Amino acid sequence: MGARRYELNDDEWDRIKNKLPPEHPKEGKRGRPAKYDNRRIMNGILWIARTGAPWRVLPERYGKWQAVYARFRLWKERGVFESVFATLRTDADRRTSP
């Protein structure tokens, strides 16, 4: 998948994908699979963060803005972004260390 402007490239995605909640409920758990995959949602969140645009103008390629916003709120409440940023920070520290 070629990354568009503001989207994660494959290397960036590989570094953070395991920090995000599963897209499908675990065996024996209630719930339905997510309509949009985590990468699509994360790219939508990044688009909003990088452009400063309101949620309602999110391009359709990222899914319905309400779905992207709902997952953003859920991940924020669960501390997912802290885990993702810690991973990215560690990667950056490794690249700058002698």
Structure description:
It contains 4 helices and no strands. By secondary structure, it is mainly alpha-helical. The chain has one domain. Helix 2 packs across helix 3 (65-78). It has helices spanning 10-16, 38-51, 65-78, 80-96.
Short description:
The chain is mostly helical and 98 residues long. It has one domain.
Topology:
Blueprint: H1 10-16, H2 38-51, H3 65-78, H4 80-96
Helix pairs in contact: 2-3
The proportion of residues in beta strands is under 5%
**Major sheet size, sense and barrel closure:** none
Helix content, binned percent: 40-55%
Arithmetic mean pLDDT: 86
**Strand-and-helix sequence, N→C?**
HHHH
Q: Could you give the count of β-strands?
A: 0
User: How big is the Rg?
Assistant: 14 Å
Low-confidence stretches: none
General shape? globular
Q: What structural category do the secondary elements indicate? A: mainly alpha
Number of helices: 4
Distance between the termini: 33 Å
Q: How many distinct folded domains?
A: 1
Entry keywords:
single chain, about 100 residues, mainly alpha, 4 helices, about 55% helix, globular
